[in-house]
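ok trying again, last paste got cut off:
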Amino acid sequence: MNGFIEKMAFKYRDNAIAKFLVRPFYRMKVKQEEKTRRKLYHKNAYELLMQLKHTLDSNKIFFWLEFGTLLGAYREKDFIKHDLDLDIGLFFDNPKLVRDAFENGGFKLKKEFRVGNDGNLGFEETYFYKGVTVDVFYFHKSEDVMYCNTFSPFKDEYTDMSTFQVKQITVPFTGFSKLTFKNMEFNVPADIATHLKCHYGNDFMIPNANFDYRKEATNIHWYKREERVAKYKSYM
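nice, full thing came through this time. structure:
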């Protein structure tokens, strides 16, 4: 039933009558799922963070805090109250080594987005641990910038959940420094303020549960279908 509601909500999102009939049920479903995820997140995020750090450090895999996790560590000195998962960045050097490390560390691969066979033009993974997910964003470095990709359904093509639009997110490369968070030391971008401003706008230090990256972020390039597409694969 849930899958049917979700499919109808996306398929007829621009139809006023269908939206009126289906959307309330879809929003109830999403709201309940987010409530459950948020509860598990705040219960297990610290343990996940410790296990994540141990797993990657013991395999000598360089990573840093990214997106919402970095914002929370810098601004709140805590996990963001309305957040649902952890975010980390890695350089696209050896994704297989990363996957092996996660799986040997007790994480389960939940899903991936990939452009092409090798993922060099776009790659993201999500792992699952004790009810909490960690999104792994693979970055490339080019001169004085670094960039990763995120993915979303193409407009008006919500019934095709296997092919996704590619978005390239670019930030200045300022090197890395250390930040103590939850009594652990993590790699973070050296100029955190500039990094977060690119992602969340000039007012990133003001908490905003209704933040819309499409309105605030200035560092996103949306690829057209004829330029680049990503394939989605679920493992759970």
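cool. The chain has six helices and eleven strands. The longest helix spans residues 16-58.
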